[in-house]
Sequence to fold (460 residues):
Amino acid sequence: MTKRRIGIEITPQCLRMAIFDDNRDTPVLLRKIEQPVDPDQELSEQINAMLDAPAGFGDRFCTALASEGCFVRRLSFPFDDPRKIEAAAGMELAAQLPIDISDHIIATTPVVAEQDTYATMVATVPAEKIAAALTPFEAIKLPLHVLGLSPFTEVNGLGNWFKQGILVRAHDGQLTLSLVQQGRVLSHENCGMIAEGEATLGDRILREAALLCRSERLEPQPLCLIGSHITTTLTTELAEQFEIIDLSALGGEQSLDNAFLPVCAMALAAEKPVINFRRGRFTLKSEWASLKKHFYIGGTLLLATIAILVGTALHSYQFKTGVAEKYRKQINQVFRETLPGQTAIVDPVKQLEAELNRLRETGQLVGLDKSISALSVLRDFSLHTPKDISVDIKNFNYEPEALTVEGITKSFDSVNRLASELRKSPSFSAVRIADAKMGLEGNKVTFRLQITIGHQGGAL
Fold:
């Protein structure tokens, strides 16, 4: 998409237009046009004829109001919120100015921190002056994005070449000097009309520049000269006492007359205006309508997306709920078929797991799982006990991994024979006599055997 910055200057005598290509890192001058004002033709038609093509979506248009009839004040506030400053600026100006500004449009420059306060330049323009300036553009539906104020708009547009010094605007019969520091207007003076062929213009500029510097307690500042009254002779005269800012790079490969510098600066200021009176009831309606259209389309798409997401989520929830209910019924059916004696169903899965564990433990005890059970251990113990000895078992403690047997027999030899025979059983991997002692009567031996049980099979 082609992007252009277009500056338009309307004076009583002529129309000027500057068109810059904005598709590069640094805007490049494409065309500059100047033509006399035709009193027999509508101004809007003359502007439309100067354009080489209809305005595109990427074009940005800018023009600036003359400072005559406008009021500008430098105000300071203890806060930096732009909305609060804009609200307070109107009341502060109304208190300072000797006129009624209820039908004025107020614009402010970006806030700058100064010690404990925040400063801004506040400008006010009568609404009828703004309406008159917009009339030729609205007649041809040309989207004028920026309606600035001279000299703030020019200083803003020249920011890449001029950030500190004095802007001397000798243009269209008016002389204006603006003290610029760090790319912003610190103060400016409207020095009145310029007479045709005025020989003392250089002296006036030198005098006003010196006064402007002294008022702010500054050393002499370099001069930036723009406007139709800037001639080679005047530039040479001023260069004897002041440094002159070179703006020859502004036109790129094209030679640029001083009369075109103001409109070129307007074009360059179209992207990020420092002051713009297209606000309130003068807000650019085409942009607002386009913005509303995008909002409506975006809102519709957002609502449609939300509706689809909600519908999908509800359908997924209903499907999963149906599947879960189907599984629940199947589990309850399996529970009733497996445990017909159970009437209370609280958590069928956990109840089935508990019943299965109980059956597994019972099976291990009776040997249903083909492993070494308590019954098989007891049977092997009995089979491997010698028949010719008397053994009285007092404690038979069975565990899955070990067996502890406590009992009474008649002699230590009987204990040794019992242990020896038990070691022959494949069910026992180890047999140890943990304790054996003779009783006080001398005819009974109390013993304790610790037997390690070997496994033969798997778990249930």
